[in-house]
Amino acid sequence: MPNKNALIVYRDVAGLHCECGNGELITDSHPKYETFYCTWSTRSGSGKALGYCLKCGSELQEPKSMFAPADQREDLLKKYGPQPSTI
């Protein structure tokens, strides 16, 4: 049975994260995820990103969008940097 850990896209920290503690950032020198599996689903009509964490074996799901927890924000920003600003 798959793990229920949620995938998270933090609004204030870059990268894709999992409740198990896994996190990864895509960069020019690191162009694809190695610890997450991500796919695009069109089953809902317009399409949405789905993924799961390979570290904990979480279930296939749409990442949650939220702000980083206050007690972890500083460490996450040091490791992954801020979300890129959009124009």
Our estimate of the beta-strand percent is 25-35%
- Using DSSP, what is the number of strands? 6
Number of helices: 1
N-to-C SSE string, H for helix and E for strand? EEEEEEH
Q: Look at the structure and give the mean pLDDT.
A: 92
- Spatial gap, N to C terminus: 41 Å
Helical coverage, percent range: 10-25%
Describe this structure in words.
With about 90 residues, the protein is an alpha+beta fold. The protein contains one helix and six strands. The chain has a four-stranded mixed beta sheet, with no helix packed on it. A hairpin with a 4-residue loop joins β2 and β3. The chain is globular. The termini are far apart. The model has no long low-confidence stretch (mean pLDDT about 90).
Q: What is the strand and helix layout of this fold?
A:
Elements: E1 7-10, E2 16-18, E3 23-24, E4 36-41, E5 48-53, E6 64-66, H1 70-80
Parallel strand pairs: 1-6
Antiparallel strand pairs: 1-2, 2-3, 4-5
Task: Briefly characterize the structure.
The protein is α+β, with helices and mostly antiparallel strands. It has one helix at residues 70-80; strands spanning 7-10, 16-18, 23-24, 36-41, 48-53, 64-66. The protein starts with 6 loop residues before the first strand and ends in a 7-residue tail after the last helix.
